[in-house]
Amino acid sequence: MRTHTLRTDGAEITYDVHGPDPAPGGPPPLVAVGQPMDATGFRSLAAHLPERTVVAYDPRGLGRSTRHDGRTDHDPDVQATDVHALITALGAGPVDVFGSSGGAVTALALVTAYPSDVRVLVAHEPPVISVLPDADEARRARAAWRDAYEAKGWGAGMAAFIAMTSWTGPLTDAYLAGPAPDPAAFGLPTEDDGSRDDPLLSDRSWAVSDFVPDVAALTAARTRIVLAIGEETGDTFTSRTARGVAAALGSEPVMFPSHHGGFAGGEFGYPGKPAEFAAVLRGVLDGG
User: Fold this and answer.
1) pLDDT digits (tens, 9 = 90+) for 49-73
2) Contact 213, 108 (CB under 8 A)
3) How far apart are CA 274 and CA 30, in angstroms?
């Protein structure tokens, strides 16, 4: 693995390059994009794609990447400009892109703004609220986990986040009227850790879930866009948002092994199936 730093407008972006350099006539680099996950989340996936050049980066203000733009929010349009700068620096475009969760939203913004950058985009479970029929309820549930975090810290906020994102089917008034989840029930700390700047639990990343896909731009792009859903995700929030984006683009999602983080190993305590995930991803990128 080789690590590099790239200066962009308002940020210094750190990225890792795994595997061989791109070979003439071979597959293009695969750029892995997360949010709020940084590059470390893609190491297991890269290890199972030894024939590919895999590039993973830390979004501005996260992981090793710093920012000096005076902002604390995480905006997919801003992050897309950083990924565009990274692809330009690689000098090997158009590339393939695998975007996970909020990174899938960044990747959709990238194709919207810079369609010539990307050959194939695999967007894995982008949390785009606007495509849901119960979008208003989803926004209220999002506000509830933010409020729990603001009131009682990380454990309370994460418990509310897990409860919302593991709920099966549309979010209902009954769900919203229910009691706040107990962090202890999820094995989470009950004491207030004092933090209020978590990129997932605060409102700093609301621009990600508030993203509205530009369907006209995305369907006009030459990029092949594939929406991906984990087999274990069921009918929960990010499965429903992925299906909604696919429907808006007139396509069918592709099922991938495991869950929302199914490409990761055991480094985060909730292992996926990275070998199986990589095999399916390879087939999709190769046109299967």
Assistant:
1) 999 999 999 999 999 999 999 999 9
2) yes
3) 16
At 90, the amino acid letter reads L
What is the CATH number that goes with domain 2-128+211-285? 3.40.50.1820
Q: At what angle do helices 237-248 and 154-165 cross, to 10 degrees?
A: 50
Distance of alpha carbon 64 from alpha carbon 167, whole angstroms: 33
Q: CA separation (Å) from 80 to 60, 212, 273? A: 11, 14, 28
Question: Stretch 136-141: mean pLDDT, rounded?
Answer: 96
Q: For residue 98, what is the enclosing H or E element?
A: strand 95-100
Q: Reduced to 3 states, what is the DSSP secondary structure of residue 72?
A: coil
> Which helix (H) or strand (E) segment is 12 a member of?
strand 11-18
Token look-up 């390059």 returns 17
pLDDT of residue 288: 61
- Domain(s) labelled CATH 3.40.50.1820 in the chain stretch across 2-128+211-285
- Mean pLDDT score across all residues of the chain: 96
| Residue, of 267 and 83, whose pLDDT is higher | 83
Q: CA 237, CA 233: separation in Å to the nearest integer?
A: 9
Are the CB atoms for 165 and 237 separated by under 8 Å? yes
pTM exceeding the 0.85 threshold for the entire prediction: yes
